[in-house]
Input
Amino acid sequence: MLDFLNGHVRGVMDNHATCGVGTLSSRILGDDGQMFLLFLLAIATLIALSIHEFGHAWMADKLGDPGPRKDGRVTLAPWAHLDPLGTLLIVASTLIGFPVGWGKPVKTDPETYTVDRKLGVALVAGAGPLMNLLAAFVLAAPARFLLGVLQNGAYPPSWEPFLAITFLINVMVMLVSLSLFAFNLLPLYPLDGSHVLANLLPNDIAVVYVRIMKRYGTYLFLGLLVSGVLNDIVGPVVIGLFRFLLGV
Output
């Protein structure tokens, strides 16, 4: 789902070649720095997934469910949200340029919510993607600052590796977070968007929607994913937001 990220991060570096980021990646791992960027993409994916799961846990906690806090999930610490198999798959799949994986699902009990059950489920489901969007906006400020510093070159040469790597990780987390935001809000089962929509629709329509999604949603999702249609839908949204936030 995120295979287009590598190309657009490289595009940012190419457009600002004077900052030296591209030459840094080339010096570290080959002429095009491909493995270097993929390594950073794996790290960024793990961080963004942790932000996503924290969003679910934080909202459930705010709505009165004591479970996520007891489970240690109301934290941004990545190790609290990493699923062993999902993490391994992220690392392995990123090496071939197509990061796929998942974080540890947040266990929550809608019966403990202090609001209407359906509204609570929709809020918790939507909080993960929205937390990713918030993270991208927060990271935009340091990303712009670092890009400006690297462009101006007003720093000791020995600082270049630290500044460039920090910039790259920053924009990678931005891109993955924006991807998780746009991707997970699609109304396809089992994505968060399907749970949001199912709990906002009138009951009679929601019943039909849930029945169709549970029966065909996974197949539709996989078909759109493998065919590349999902990237065609999500990609322009992600890149548009990214360029707006970074000002490139």
Summary: Residues 84 and 104 are 8 Å apart (CA to CA). Residues 5-185+235-246 form one domain. The first helix runs from residue 5 to 15.
